[in-house]
Specification:
about 180 residues; two-stranded antiparallel ribbon; transmembrane; transmembrane helix; DUF1648 domain-containing protein; DUF1648; membrane
Length: about 180
């Protein structure tokens, strides 16, 4: 038996300029990182790093075909983040969605996916640079800080969504 479809208010708010710019920037970074991986593929050795330690140094190696999967994966994940950020009404929220709080929750859901996409694209740029420069300091730094950024984004996103779910008169939340 299929669960009943949720009936939620339509999204009516206007996305802010910064959020729109970051959404496109994240997608551009992911596409650029993937393109650079594909362009550099023929010059790569047959064995490439497939995992990096906390310091950004390679600690496992595999066939260079893995790079093709990484390039495709980067694009697919970023497209999923882009799509999800445009459809915040389908997201599961840490609070009940009502007519009164829907637009505030949707805005925070959209921001969550945009910022998460930005941190993922930052990490992929770091991975791309590690593949192309054989252990770059910038690449290892980006790979190290991105998981921490993702954790901060997740915690902040949940807190902001919980706050946005309260009646405006109680929370003083204005997005």
């Amino acid at each position: 038996m299929q669960p009943q479809a949720r009936h939620r208010p339509e999204r009516t708010y206007k996305t802010g300029a910064v959020t729109r710019m970051l959404r496109w920037f994240s997608l551009a970074v992911a596409l650029t990182a993937s393109a650079l991986l594909l362009v550099g593929y023929p010059q790569m050795p047959n064995e490439v790093p497939i995992h990096f330690d906390a310091a950004g140094q390679p600690d496992a190696y595999g066939d260079k075909m893995v790079v093709l999967g990484v390039a495709c994966g980067i694009i697919l994940v970023q497209l999923a983040m882009y799509w999800a950020s445009k459809k915040p009404q389908i997201m599961d929220y840490p609070a009940r969605v009502t007519d009164e709080n829907a637009q505030r929750l949707y805005r925070e859901g959209e921001r969550f996916f945009v910022y998460l996409g930005l941190s993922i694209s930052t990490m992929t740029a770091g991975v791309g640079e590690l593949y192309s420069t054989d252990g770059s300091t910038v690449g290892s730094y980006l790979v190290r800080i991105s998981p921490a950024a993702m954790a901060v984004i997740a915690i902040t996103g949940v807190v902001r969504m919980r706050h946005a779910s309260k009646p405006e008169s109680e929370s003083g939340f204005h997005g």
